[in-house]
Design goal:
Blueprint lengths: L13 E4 L2 E4 L10 H18 L3 H14 L8 H11 L4 H11 L3
Antiparallel strand pairs: 1-2
Helix pairs in contact: 1-4, 2-3
């Protein structure tokens, strides 16, 4: 018997091999990031207190972050993230930290 090696590389999308299924169809989900989201929410609440950010701005930013989980196409995410950075520049540091966890590469 030969010692064979199977190599499979999947980047985004999905692949199905018999009973093996790999991939997320290029969908991003917030489910795995509950602790990171709580840390982010705490950081932006601290900004509210120290920089006088309005509660409505905090709520709008939270809604934008949560809408990332509803983005169905991977190619839409960079534009959405860029828009969030532009619109909520007062939260740049917490956003950078959160997005480095969401999108590590």
């Amino acid at each position: 018997m030969n010692n064979r090696k199977i190599e499979i590389s999947v980047t985004g999308g999905n692949a199905v091999f018999g009973d093996i299924v790999q991939g997320d169809n290029n969908r991003f989900s917030l489910v795995d990031y509950a602790d990171d989201l709580q840390e982010f929410y705490s950081a932006i609440s601290d900004l509210k207190l120290s920089h006088g950010i309005a509660e409505s701005q905090i709520d709008a930013l939270k809604k934008e972050i949560e809408s990332l989980g509803e983005t169905h196409r991977a190619e839409d995410i960079p534009a959405t993230v860029r828009g969030i950075y532009d619109q909520y520049s007062w939260a740049l540091e917490p956003l950078k930290k959160l997005f480095s966890v969401f999108f590590p590469e």
